[in-house]
Specification:
Blueprint (H helix, E strand, L loop, with lengths): L2 H4 L3 H11 L24 E5 L1 H4 L2 H11 L3 E5 L3 H15 L2 E5 L4 H5 L28 E2 L2 E2 L1 E14 L21 E4 L2 H11 L10 H13 L4 E5 L2 H10 L4 E4 L1 H9 L4 E4 L5 E10 L6 H10 L3 H11 L14 H6 L5 H6 L1 E3 L6 H13 L1
Parallel strand pairs: 1-2, 1-3, 7-8, 7-9, 11-12
Antiparallel strand pairs: 3-11, 4-5, 6-9, 6-10, 6-11
Helix pairs in contact: 8-15
Length: about 375
Amino acid sequence: MSGSTVRLNRRRFLQMAGTLGLGGFATVGLPSTDPRAWAALPGPLRVNTIVSIWGREKDIKPFERKYGVEVKLTAWVSNIVQVTKMATGGTKLWDVVTMIHMFTDPIMKRKLLQPLDMSQIPNAAHLWPQFVKPSYAVYEGVQYGIPYVWGYDAILYNKAGIPRMESWKDMFEERYKGKIALRDDPQFALPIAALALGISDPFALGADELKEIKAFLIAKKPVIRKLWVGFAEALTLMRTGEVQALMGWLPMWRLLKKEGMNVDFIIPKEKAFGWVHVYMVSKETKLLPTAYTFLDYVLDTEFSSSIARDLAYFSPSKKVLSGLTDADVKELRYDRIDEIQKNLIFGDFPINIQEWNDTWSAFKAA
């Protein structure tokens, strides 16, 4: 037998070794029953996502190893940028793209996405009921997206500096002058001010409400120490004590808590802002089988439990529970999902988005 007959290239060997669970490789145990794991999928798969959170190497590399395909990540910048890029050629740049629930509608209406065949995403059968064919992933009866992570933005505060907070109104109290930070994003900052003013629907703001909010924010400007932009910046503000409270994210609370800070992350009495991130597939992708495999992967136990344990985000897939201990379930509030969701406001895309942006710009310029 010639040497060329038995030669196996290194990449294929690593794929087979990982699949078969050979000693020294990441996957241990019985061979995978997923036929897609026995042959390299076409690639590279171009995924646009929040790289620092949902594109971490520890979460993407297992997919690449298992399916023998490279994932090329590009960074999500903002909700508005996502919509603009998708409408101006993003379908040629990306195979899979992340969108927050309130910004999916304009993309679906423009028919920029690939309709999804849910039979190609087996783990979709494990979604909690509220995430099955949600309105923000369906247009004219056709499903274009799959929820893969959800959470909420609320008040993160340092109990060493502020013993107790319970309302969005607290974020504008004069006694906390210079200790507060807001996110530099009108789609999330303006609703906070709306709730503090007692406006019942913080995502349906007309000209009169926006005028009232602008005046309120300008008057409260001395209270607000900083407008934060990025995740790392917000963490630094809290770590250094430059601010004592901000409109924050679940992983901020998780990371600061692990570092030993006495922080709390509370849902205010007016409710917090819920969101769902959805993966969608470009209508121009040439890698549909690979895209489906990726969508299935992010609903599976390995990815979803890693995101939960490290960052405190929630998976819409029940398969996450297989990767969590009883203690994890309690600490990460998976035992309170129904209660939490009842106290969240899932906002809609503002129909007068330019007026929102103008209001925010006027506040910043004042």
